[in-house]
Write a structure and sequence with these properties.
- GO terms for molecular function: cyclic-guanylate-specific phosphodiesterase activity.
- The chain is of the alpha/beta class.
- The protein is built from 23 helices and 20 strands.
- An eight-stranded mixed barrel has the order 12-13-15-16-17-18-19-20, surrounded by five helices. A six-stranded mixed sheet has the order 6-8-9-7-10-11.
- Helix 13 links the parallel strand 10 and strand 11 (386-388).
- Helix 3 (36-84) packs antiparallel against helix 8 (204-244) and helix 14 packs across helix 16 (463-481).
- The two termini are 30 Å apart.
Length: 640
């Protein structure tokens, strides 16, 4: 029994200010993590939307550029008509070379001013198209490639000729000896019905350069948004990785961080210890997760000072991992666990004490964590503080052989009726004549020797085997006590009571038993707490059938006693080791007295086992304990 936790006075929970790195980083409020699959989907949607946006923006820009170019060409052609004028075309025979030259020079200045390649006017004299005026470029001057009045435009296209019969501007993209252009032809009609056109050309190279600018603008926009996307995704993955590998409650690394550290460790061989904080689940159930997480942070900070440069990792709610080099060895980690100050409170307001259990392993990093967990499980089963994995490799074959032998022995005993009941008396403190007998099973081997329960208890964890022995013990006890007025009890497990066939068997016995109120069915505290709701219903059902129910092995004090007292109980039996510290711990007796007052107020009998001396009996009787059990009262025997 954890006497220190029982002795603590009940205090209201106080919210302590915390100064954790996780709060500074803003990770304490992080409760949900976006799965990577959803992030990939979101990225795909974003990139698709970005592509659609860039493409749409490009085509909008391209359409605007083409509209501006068309307007520029129309403006140039219209301006050319203003410069040349209708009168120029009404009397073509009177045009002198000087006048043609003057018009060409004016059109050249216009083309440069409006940033087009050529502006010109033409007339159609079937079947040929003739120039009446035209601008020229510096290259034309250099190559002496100037157009003369009424020169035939031999490369006139069908589109150009059709423009003479159109009523609106006509656009064309075509090549000739002057280059590759986009052109506009605007028809004008003279009073005599003659049609001439004013035209303007823009090189395709110029057009493409303008479109290329729109492409560059779209690419710059896309690049900007894509870079911003990469920055956001990178920051997210950094944050996601941190939250994925960090225990948000304590700020230490979690199991994923440990597995990565082992995977990428420079040293292939390390030592690792998995440490279990025994009382943490009870602390959380009584004081809440905040206090439990603070306790774990204190424990991990304590070990962090000794394992540097290696980190301390939180594997589960109540388990942590310590890592050190192979040079320090397993015993270094074991000594850390054994030297942990269990006698000092690890947490203040309320004062909380914890005990540790550890499994230590060394060797290849790939199997290190699994081996340490196996060692811890063995330490829990053997109720030892530290267990080494290497030693388990030597002991396991022997233990397995022993377990197999015991299992066969128990099965044979059930089949051959070699199960016998032993009775341990429990005397009432207020009436020594009031005795209840606690019934336990013993096994006779083939030679007739009695095997105590502690020898075959390890293999009793098999539900079916335990149920067979329990049913046989129940049958023997009913036969023994049916015709008497003795009160008696026996222990059941959750797996047994949850078995519908076995529960029906118990129900039939209680219906036939003359005084079912004399029978008490006991359940272990750990079993009850693990299956609290289910056990509460089962206990109510047993009480409805007339039997009494009790919880045994109570050892967690105020941390869980309130939950236990909420059950429909008739008795509570404390842990067997309670009397070992009764003479040394002054607070223990007052704690038992405090617990007894709560039990008496609810009409629940408080039972203390393993009473060895009359002094202990008097102290417990004065504390208000209802019943006593132990060697001073009477040892277990096959007879009453």
């Amino acid at each position: 029994m954890n006497t220190r936790s029982i002795a603590q006075p009940l205090k209201a929970k106080s919210r302590q200010p915390t100064a954790k790195a996780t709060q500074f980083l803003g990770l304490t409020g992080y409760t949900s993590r976006l799965p990577v699959a959803w992030l990939v989907l979101a990225s795909f949607i974003f990139l698709a939307a970005l592509s659609i946006y860039v493409i749409a923006n490009y085509y909008d820009t391209r359409r605007d550029i083409m509209a501006r170019i068309d307007a520029q060409l129309i403006n140039a052609a219209t301006s050319a008509n203003v410069i040349v004028g209708k009168k120029y075309h009404e009397s073509p025979e009177q045009i002198t070379p000087a006048e043609f030259k003057q018009k060409s020079h004016a059109l050249t200045e216009l083309a440069r001013a409006l940033n087009v390649e050529y502006v010109y006017t033409m007339v159609l004299k079937p079947p040929y198209v003739h120039f009446t005026a035209s601008s020229y470029t510096r290259e034309d001057l250099k190559l002496n490639r100037l157009t003369r009045y009424q020169d035939v435009y031999s490369e006139a296209s069908i589109t150009l000729k059709s423009a003479f019969h159109s009523t609106e501007p006509v656009f064309e993209i075509a090549k000739d000896k002057w280059g590759h252009f986009k052109s506009v032809f605007i028809p004008f009609v003279l009073p005599d019905g003659t049609t001439y056109i004013a035209g303007a050309d823009l090189t395709i190279h110029d057009l493409e350069s303008r479109l290329q600018e729109s492409v560059m603008d779209a690419a710059i926009d896309a690049s900007f948004f894509f870079v911003m996307f990469l920055v956001v995704v990178s920051l997210y993955f950094m944050y996601y990785k941190k939250t994925l590998t960090t225990d948000s409650r304590t700020g230490f690394g979690n199991r994923i961080a440990l597995e990565q550290a082992l995977k990428y460790s420079k040293s292939q061989h390390l030592c690792l210890s998995v440490v279990w904080v025994k009382e943490l689940e009870d602390i959380i159930s009584f004081y809440g997760t905040e206090v439990g997480d603070n306790v774990m942070a204190k424990v991990m900070s304590y070990f962090g000072e000794f394992t540097h440069p290696f980190e301390v990792y939180r594997l589960t709610t109540s388990k942590i991992a310590l890592v050190t080099s192979i040079e320090n060895g397993e015993h270094y980690l074991a000594n850390l666990t054994e030297s942990f100050p269990c006698a000092k409170p690890i947490y203040d307001a309320p004062h909380l004490y914890v005990n540790l259990c550890a499994g230590v392993a060394k060797g290849n990093c790939a199997l290190l964590l699994e081996n340490a967990f196996l060692a811890l499980r063995q330490a829990q089963q053997q109720n030892t503080q530290v267990c080494y994995f290497d030693s388990q490799l030597q002991l396991n074959p022997q233990q397995q052989s022993k377990n197999l032998h015991l299992t066969r022995l128990l099965q044979s005993a059930c089949e051959s009726d070699r199960i016998i009941p032993f009775f341990t008396p429990r005397k009432a403190c207020h009436d020594h004549a009031d005795i209840q007998y606690h019934c336990t099973a013993r096994v006779l081997n083939e030679r007739g020797a009695i095997i105590d329960a502690e020898h075959f208890y390890p293999v009793m964890k098999q539900p079916k085997l335990r149920a067979q022995i329990s049913m046989k013990l129940l049958e023997l006890c009913v036969t023994r006590f049916r015709k008497s007025n003795h009160a008696w009890s026996m222990q059941l497990s959750h797996s047994e009571i949850a078995d519908a066939e076995y529960f029906e068997y118990i129900s039939q016995i209680l219906r036939r038993y003359p005084q079912p109120q004399l029978i008490t069915f006991e359940f272990n505290e750990t079993d009850v707490l693990k299956n609290f709701s289910d056990m509460s219903l089962m206990m109510q059902s047993l009480k409805a059938k007339g039997a009494n129910v009790a919880v045994t092995g109570v050892n967690s004090g105020f941390l869980t006693i309130n939950r236990i007292l909420k059950l429909p109980l008739d008795a509570i039996c404390l842990e067997a080791s309670i009397c070992e510290n009764l003479d040394e711990d002054e607070m223990l007796l007052s704690s038992i007295e405090y617990l007894a007052s709560h039990c008496n107020a609810k009409r629940i009998d408080l039972i203390v086992p393993c009473v060895a001396t009359s002094k202990q009996a008097k102290q417990l009787e004065a504390a208000g304990v209802a019943r006593l059990e132990g060697s001073w009262i009477g040892k277990a025997s096959g007879h009453l």
